[in-house]
Batch of 2 targets.
Target 1
Amino acid sequence: MQASDRFNINSQLEHLQAKYVGTGHADLNRFEWAVNIQRDSYASYIGHYPMLAYFAVAENESIGRERYNFMQKEKTIKSCSSGYEVKC
Amino acid sequence: MYLYNLTLQQATGIVSAINGNFSGGKIQEIVVARGKILSLLRPDELGKLQTLHSVEIFGCIRSLAQFRLTGAQKDYIVVGSDSGRIVILEYNKEKNVFDKVHQETFGKSGCRRIVPGQYLAIDPKGRAVMIEAHKSHTIVYSICGVDCGFDNPIFAAIELDYSEADQDSTGVAAGEAQKHLTFYELDLGLNHVSRKWSDQVDNGANMLVTVPGGGDGPSGVLVCAENFVIYKNQGHPDIRAVIPRRADLPEERGVLIVSAATHKQKSMFFFLLQTEYGDIFKVTLEHGNDGVTELKIKYFDTIPVTASMCVLKTGFLFAASEFGNHALYQFQAIGDDPDVESSSSTLMETEEGFQPVFFQPRGLKNLVRIDRAESLMPIMDMKIANLFEEETPQIYSLCGRGPRSSLRILRPGLAISEMAVSQLPGVPSAVWTVKKNVNDAFDAYIVVSFANATLVLSIGETVEEVSDSGFLDTTPSLAVSLIGDDSLMQVHPNGIRHIREDGRINEWRTPGKRTTVKVGSNGLQVVIALSGGELIYFEVDMTGQLMEVEKHEMSGDVACLDIAPVPEGRQRSRFLAVGSYDNTIRILSLDPDDCMQVLSVQSVSSPPESLLFLEVKASIGGEDGADHPANLFLNAGLQNGVLFRTVVDMITGQLSDSRSRFLGLRAPKLFSVKVRGRPAMLCLSSRPWLGYIHQGHFLLTPLSYETLEFAASFSSDQCAEGVVSVAGDALRVFTIEQSDQGSYTAEEREAARKECFEAAGMGENGNGNMNQMENGGDDEDKEDPLCDEQYGYPKAESNKWVSCIRVLDPRTAATTCLLELQDNEAAFRFIHIYRFLEDGRSLELLHKTQVEGVPLALCQFQGRLLAGIGSVLRLYDLGKKRLLRKCENKLFPNSIVSIQTYRDRIYVGDIQESFHFCKYRRDENQLYIFSDDVVPRWLTASYHIDFDTMAGADKFGNVYFVRLPQDVSDEIEEDPTGGKIKWEQGRLNGAPNKVEEIVQFHVGDVVTSLQKASLIPGGGECVLYGTVMGSLGALLPFTSRDDVDFFSHLEMHMRQEHPPLCGRDHMAYRSAYFPVKDVVDGDLCEQFPTLPLDLQRKIADELDRTPGRY
């Protein structure tokens, strides 16, 4: 394999990472990986209405409130910075 | 094991609803998304909601929007789904289907973070649609179109950029992250989108509402945020007003707008915004040349929390409740009366923030409810049991939540609504209705026959007995009908009485001592059968006289007769069907040239009791569904309870394509009725059934009604399509409700909420008609004068609970025992032991045992109690003062949510890690896990199928079966240590043996309960499931390899020829989380009759079959 090819693959990967959030890379730490999964999970809960309704019943909130809570930065962003210290 | 998945009752919950004129013209219609189903509803003039069309799209609908092209009269539907495609649909009212106008692929399938589809926004002039733009490191909260007349379309979005927060490990940036309102402009000339304007917005912002612009208003958007509504527009200062709060709302809780509707007239517009507590506010804007000057929020009314609201131009409000029944309200007023109001001009800012405005919810003032659409959402649990000792078991389901929860008893069958029941002087044997003239819309008489008399009732304002009708009342009747255009016929044992319109009466007497036994007639032709087997055929001639035409001697007594209906434009029908006691049905010709010739003979399994020709007219679709060629069906009710149906060739009279179905223990009697103006068949066996056409299918569905003896169609100005029937000594008039959703009817019972619902000790301790349930809710104050159903319980502080246990008698719908748990005690921390008293009618607390976690699962096992407490499985013995710990196993991964036992095996379901098969060894007093699953499954429901097999459902909407391989199972049973030595070794951080997945299927909805049951007497067992969206489905095992082959091939062809409407790949959908295994999707196969005929034929050819007439 020539050096230029390798460069190509890398640049392709970079392109993928820029385009698709959550595409992994070699230096991904455990925490970033977990944050990605968490955000993906919330996105999936919001997208799948029955699941959102299921959580809403469990928490005794309205579905609209549940959706709001899942998107607020306490859940999606802060989880990232607060745990950043313990990266491993 | 191969299974066939079939939805028994379509989902009733609503994800999103839009309104518009989808069929064109002025009729207001509503399109609702019910998860994976798209339906079109129309409120009729009386305000009754009718479902016109309903289609499963095999995908997950996330958003809906409607748009109208400039100058057009018709709205189109845009669907955002998980297909990675945007689809534009048009309702085709001729064929009653949604036609796909356009489909554009933009991304991967599935509900993913990086694929758009969650939000849709429409340019108010119908020039552009936006699906949310997904930039990396940006969260989009809401989007909407901005009304800017015919300038370039502009869309607004609430966005949050978190790229800085991700880089900053200290959390400062995350704390400072700010939501922005961004306007995007589509340059129509350059076909290019540019970011036009962006401004900071309140961090609680969650929803955008378009404000009318152009000539109608000030343009811009309303930003709904927690506690506030803010008007924003480019180059315009923010106008902010606070949302009024309920006075009893705890301080830490905000008020969030969850749904919005806009009403726009020529001269004015206003918005209705609903909060998460159900209160609706009317928002109005004061505006002039210099923009918006004031924003007012006025309390409007309170209705249950909705997922979507639609204001119809006809003055209705459709409220799609997020849980529980949906409702249609009519506007009485538009909130012009003074009420609690908050305004931007009186907004006060103090040191603690903005000054709140308080209000008290009150009764409805501006709205009045006129109809409701049933919703079972969410089915939290269900049990199938035959507590009423009927032919088929009932389904007891716990639906809804909080104050709107209910126990509903579901029965397979169409709902009927009883209009009148009246007692008769004797026990009637038969009933008919007749019109006076063939052109009359309504019936004139109800004629009831008794053993030795006939009673005539005239239908008018009231129904009363008359004696001047001309009918002979001193004899029983065999048939009463309209004959010719305007004369009446009464057939009695001694002859025929023909009553002319002018009152003249012609009497025909039977020859000799013979009596009439059976009659068949169709309005122009009459055939009577005399005792001994002689048939006499009469026809109505040109002058209206009834003329004897032909006689024919049959070989034996006639069991039943019917004449086919007269084809349109003809003088007579050609076919007479005669059933004999020698187990045959003969088709005789009535044509003059071969009169009484036998055209064909069909032998049947038992003597026929009743015959009915049912003609299905050719239709070219229309609101009833697919194309049908004209067909004549001969239906026969046999004495062994079987309904036999065969196709009659319209020319030769040959019989073909016969089918039979067991209906009940009594010989079905068949009657012709009308359903939606089309011929249908009522079959009275030990329960009534209705055969009718619905969306292109011929359906034979039981009615939820008691056994009937005899019936006739009934039509009066109060009830256009009713049925009059006799049963016992009562005359009953009822109508059949057209339930469009499916064939389940619910009977609502006492409100009750569930956590855990057990049909208590079915069979075991003999209290079969009892339900025990634990309740959990968090209402605090029950003295509220307003009904909780409408207003909701007041919100309590967090960690406050109120729970109760209720024992219900389903027959009387009465609570026989209600135990309220005191002192904020919920269904956790303790295991309570109760004793049944008074034959199971009430409960008595024996003792409480404190446990360290939440006991989510309890099960009796060998006279002891197995409890799953957190991750611990524990065996308790019943002590005098408390439960006594006997044995425990702490090796479960997370939390035990289900326990089932069979012999000495224990099947434990973990909340996250699927099933664990355990064994209890009494001699060593040990519980150990000998087998587990390799797949993480977030269990929501489980059911024990057989010794080695468990069925489970996970929270992502999958249903699966796992089975312990036979050799492993044998080994464990034979091993004296029960696999104990092996267990100590373990494998893959778990148990030594692994179960195998044998069935896997993505339902697309969270399944909350599973149960095995047989719904047809004598039929096979199937697994029934109930879901959060309020649907019921069944998984039926195939019994033969041939069926599996046929259905999997049909499914394959259907996938190819009839791909799902919203662009999702069917196979990918059913395999959304795990590849589908050994399940044929019946919902797809059942769409076969809706295909165009040539496509049906093509698929049938490839399967070496011929398409059925139905």
Note: The interface with chain B takes residues 18-22, 39-40, 43-44, 46-51, 53-54, 56-57, 60-65, 68, 71, 73, 76-78, 80-82, 84-85 of chain A (CB under 8 Å).
Target 2
Amino acid sequence: LAPWVPVVGLEIHAQISSNSKLFSGSQVQFAAPPNSLVSFFDASLPGTLPVLNRRCVEAAVMTGLALNCSINKKSLFDRKHYFYADLPAGYQITQQRVPIAVNGSLSYSLCIDNKMSQMVTKTVRIKQIQLEQDSGKSLHDDTRSQTLVDLNRAGVGLMEVVMEPDMCCGEEAAAAVRELQLILQTLGSSQAVMAEGQLRVDANVSVHHPGEPYGVRTEVKNINSIRFLAKAIDYEIQRQIEELENGGTILNETRAFDSKLGCTVPMRDKEGKQDYRFMPEPNLPPLILYDAKSLPANMNHQQVINIDWIHERLPDLPSVKRKKLVEQYGILPEHSFTLLNEEGLAEFFESVVKQTQMKPKKVIGWILKDLLSYLKQHSLTVKESPVSSFVLADLLNLLEKKEISSTAAKQVLAELWKGEGKTPLEIVKEQKLELLQDQKELEQICQAVIDGHKNEVIMMVLG
Amino acid sequence: QKVSVEVLQHLEHLALVDFRDAEGVQRLQKAIQFADQLHEVNTDGVEPMDSVLEDRWCLYLREDDVTEGNCTKELLENAREKVEEYFVAPPGNIPLPKLEEQETFLQGS
């Protein structure tokens, strides 16, 4: 049997973190009374016009720069037409012809064979990033055969990030999305929480034999977590391979991932290919961005977006942060991944290091093994940790000064998790865990043990 | 050059229009013919223009402030049906009947 080459591409929609919507002044908020965050424009009432939100443009430029894209100094808005109850205008304003950013790349890391010590770096090309409107939400009421529509989300700004089909499996896609998520959160351009719909991922999957043209691809939607993303993609790859090996064909269709059954199912009616009748958005002139060289002399600052200014103020991206952690503290690369993978953990680690004499290389073990495993067991975030960095540093200092043993330290930590407010020293005293340093005292204890077990001593001396 | 029945049906589907009768279809054909005159101009190597504003800056950028919303009542005034402040719509798109099932003029074409 000839080998199969799976091909995976991703279309990711990230909700822009902003106060108001992309083209209107209504608020962006996750949970709110239905249709309370909706302006006349969002409801598509006649006579309303789109007005572009500056913050959304800056978010897209930041993201484009972080993903090594070329920022288009002139980009255009278009209308994409289709009918659906949660799209009151009958079209979505998007950037189909000339998006705001193109031709970037994203590097991500994978563990080989699940061994964190063997990590490999991969790159996926970013085709483009475009600004577009989100649609409202439809709640399907099957019992009454109706759909309830809430337009609170209609018009919220989205960045669509299109990743080229450079990935080959669920694991790669999951790692790429995870890294993108971390980047977006670091930039602050999107909070990228998948569970709240701030990050939505659609996967394009196909398989072919090496040397042959790409196979027909399917689009997989309705994926609600990074874990399910990997599962959905791997399932779809298997399904396609089995179908083809059984002499079947793959339809160019949209499938939904059913997380309960762990499989993909056909989603849309086969109405034939959608014809979106793209046309330029007549109410929006081209979006012009500037850089230091092209900055116009006499223009209102508020109306000018300077790409170079934004570039200079980009925060350290995750990959840079990891490198710095490794260089500054001498920890292993895989440690830096785990530190950044957990919100607040890197800061916690650095805080402990500042407050203790123990070497960072030793501290990291306590952070990644003891602290993190406890938090995971109890489903707590770093913020919710009953043990603060101050308290942990205090404990590690006792260990470092050899006032307690390593075993004793773990015992104290177990007690500290209870969060009863006791200091490490108090617990050490309570449970009499102090290491004895006094030579004479130690001799006395040993002698007492020997005296108390005369028979055993004789047995040992005799061999 | 006549516009085919398939294209007419496709247009009716996409834009939810109804060409009604032979006169309507003819009007469409004439409109297409009129627009086709644009092809007589050689536009090789010329960038399409969709705005007379070209590169002149004038896309107004709004500050990211919350200035609108909170008008649920007014918005729902226009709704034919509502349920607890939600708009009510039919369950998903109602598929248009196939050509054979329609009572349109196009059937007879």
Note: Residues 318-431 of chain A form one domain.
